[in-house]
Amino acid sequence: MRKRISAAAGLAALALTATACAGGGTSTPKSDAAAGAKSTGGTGTGTGTGTGTELAVPTGPVTITFEEAMTIGTLKPAMDKLVADFQAKYPNITVKLQGEPDYATMYTKEKAEVQAGNAPTIGQAYESWASYFQSSGVLAPISELAGTDTPPQLSTFYKGIQDDTKLPDGKTWMWPFNKSVLILFYNADLMAKDGQSEPKTWDDYASVMKAVSKDGVTGSTIDPGSATAAAFGTQWFEILAKANGAALYDKDGTPHLNDPNVVKALQYMKDLKDANALATGKNYPGETALGAQKGMFDISSAAGYGFENKTVGGKFKLGITALPAGPAGAVNELTGTNIVVFKSASADQKAAAWAFLKFITSPEEQAGWAATSGYLPVTSQALDQPALKDFIAKNPYETAAVSELDTAFALPGFSWIFKCQGYEATAIQEALENGKQPADALGTAQSACAAAKAQG
Amino acid sequence: MTIATEASQAAAAPARPQRRGPARDFRATRWGWAYSAPAVLVFLAFVIVPTGYTFYVSLWKWNALNPALSKFKGLGNYQRLWDATQPTFLSSLWHSLYFTGAMVIGGTAISLALALLLQRGGALLNGTRVAVFLPHATPVIATSMIWTWIFNYKFGLADWALHSLHLPTSQWLQSSSSAMPAVVIYSLWHEVGFTTVVFLGGLAMLSDELSEAARVDGCSAWQEFWHVTWQQLKPVTVFVVAITAITSLQAFTQFYQLANGGPAYATTTLSYLVYEEAFVFSDTGYGAALAVVLFAVTVFFTLVRRRTASGDSHALV
Fold it and tell me: What angle do CA A253, B273, B144 make, to 5 degrees?
């Protein structure tokens, strides 16, 4: 036995030595690697502020790859149309879509492709993902493509969208893509039958939720999220906290998860749960419950309109309205992702990618994209386009939703914020499912988030 | 040529002396190494080196996208095991042991019972054997997705069945107290088919004589099982326990699909935590440290089992 253990230990030591010799890490980062992390890469300036010269659209044949997750429902035809329109305008550029079934799979694939030295040209990314890519030195800043950190197109976007393209270093590293805010879907027939009206404040909302929760109907069913993924329930909690006047996170990412106004938000949710007006579930449970006429409300992304409509299937009138307001006014949070450009792309691919990014955020394309996909246009100029005018005429909620894009917030773009949202989700689960006091649950989340920030 | 001719020729041929030297130990020959080289190389490339690499990575704050930016932390990642609060390392370890214990005890008992029930032949019992084994042949990820809906507390089959029988219903995967039992139920459903077949194989090898002698001596059915049948099945039981313990410690897919490690970390096991830290949060160094600890726990249980095993059981494991 001893001989066997010795042999195993020797083998492990050999493997350790072999892998150590193979490299892959250094006790002090190499200067070129560190510089690479800060560099804008390729033709960039190294400062991220740009050369002043925009990359020209390539004239020869170029293929760019796009890691994306717009592969289900109305999203796929909307995505395909964007690409078809672009390729019709630039026949020499081929956009090869690498569609994934969901965001988690897409992120895993993006990371694996970067590690394998085969990164896509562009990919969808949340702010925290972009932060991880940027800190690893694998992204090209927008300034490298546009020649400036503030290309003229940026100013045409809604204010909230503009802010969302920057990382905490203040530079533009992302370009907006599928953006949205949360809205309130409800069973309009049931609401009328119960003599209730659309809630305008969160207090109204709680009253209506409690009033309609009877005869097998629950006010709303939410997915609180999990340690590894935020869900609409997590974002609703964040919105409630902000609507109470809480800061949640400072710009440098300092968390305030045990702030009294944050605790108040979780207490609000717990009170609803204790009154049997709120339930929890997984896999878009609010949409399922609403469609099955077991739920009155569903707080979901405006982009979920097509899915909600399909689930309801004409069984009742689907009501849609903006989220209620809190003591601090109307608050909403951006949902959806941006697009990042990977540094390893060739100069021609970067130029083609920049042409593609500008093209898909042009007013004409944004109008078609918004009308088909359900996502919101990132520029107000799209509202004047015929395609979107028709859509808004049929879906008046769109006006209220886009009006919130100027003020909608996004969490600070640090890679570890992703973990903190997981701690928020866990606190919600602890309070709603395990009966833990909101202050205690959020105290734990605050400590864990502060530790995650310290770890970096 | 006829058989008779062959026989006569064989009889006429002078008898050659039968020289049977000692069997050659191929481990000591170049050909032995050459024949085993492909398997050794594959094992080295896909098991030994990655294992060693995991040890190495666990000593760093590892940047998987750009390893040159990694920072040496020494045993810092192992220190973090004790500092972590969401979840704590010990709670994850406990969840791994809880699941493993439930699978080893429950899985062994159920599969042994099923094997005893199904050991007799016949079309119906053979069909039942297939039915019992079938879940094991299905992909865990696919059947986990189906069981997510079975466990749905609003629309699911499990609560419908309990409600129909006038039994109390459960929140299943939605509650911290019932999530792990729900994962155990699913895992037992998926795994007992295999261990039942192993026990059936063991039962088929048993001698009837001992059982007959026991019955002649007046043993009850239980005494016969306990003192005769199961004693002979001990090597098989040891194999089942060892295999179930190792696969349970490493189980991941059902935790990922059914519960995402939740709610509130109630189903976060060590193997799920490795995935969460290394692949979701990209905290690769810390994830590697957790993987090393999981490796150590698995080795510990394997050594304990080898120490406590005796006799023929060595031949099986």
Answer: 115
What's the structural domain count of chain B? 1
Q: Domains of chain A by range and CATH?
A: 42-179+335-398 (3.40.190.10), 182-333+416-455 (3.40.190.10)
pLDDT tens digit string along A310-368? 999 999 999 999 999 999 999 999 999 999 999 999 999 999 999 999 999 999 999 99
Q: Does residue B56 fall inside a structural domain?
A: no
**Which residues, in sequence order, are CB contacts of B29 under 8 Å at separation 6+?**
none
The Cα B317–Cα B274 span in angstroms is 27
**Domain of B99, in residue numbers:** 76-316
Distances from the Cα of A36 to the Cα of A140, A283, A414, A456, angstroms: 11, 40, 19, 19
Contact status of B263 with chain A (Cβ, < 8 Å): yes
Chain A, nearest residue to B173 by Cα: A281
**Residue A191 token pair:** 């609401």
How many whole angstroms separate alpha carbon B241 and alpha carbon B129? 21
Chain A residue closest in CA terms to B145: A283
Show residues of chain B in contact with A445, CB under 8 Å.
86
**B97 located within any domain:** yes
CATH number, domain of B230, equals: 1.10.3720.10
Is residue B255 less than 8 Å (CB to CB) from chain A? Answer: no
Q: A231-272, pLDDT tens digit by residue? A: 999 999 999 999 999 999 999 999 999 999 999 999 999 999
pTM for the complete prediction?
0.81
Scanning every residue of chain B, which has its alpha carbon at the shortest distance from the alpha carbon of A17?
A: B52
